[in-house]
Amino acid sequence: MQSTADANATDPLALAETWTREGRDVALATVVETWGSAPRPVGAHLVIDSDGNFEGSVSGGCVEGAVVAEAVEVISTKKPAMLEFGVADETAWRVGLSCGGRIRVFVEPVRRDPAPN
Question: Average of pLDDT values for 76-81?
Fold first, then answer.
């Protein structure tokens, strides 16, 4: 999996539209809720294709990798998922937020518009 980021950051929503027009299977991850200290605000986006290419950010670090992996599954099943990340005693050293906050991320498949008649 790799980021397609370059010096000129691309709008993840516009990129999701471009990738779907190109025929790629795509998912969109959106930060929908935060508690405490969180690396990205509500509304931050990450777009992911079925090959694990991505653009944007919902958190960074291990959380981003976990969201990308879940997004590939969402693309495959076409079923959205709600993810929650934070620091808890049992998960403090796995995927989580070292800043002490929590975030909820909604991951949904991006549907292609049917071809016009």
Answer: 96
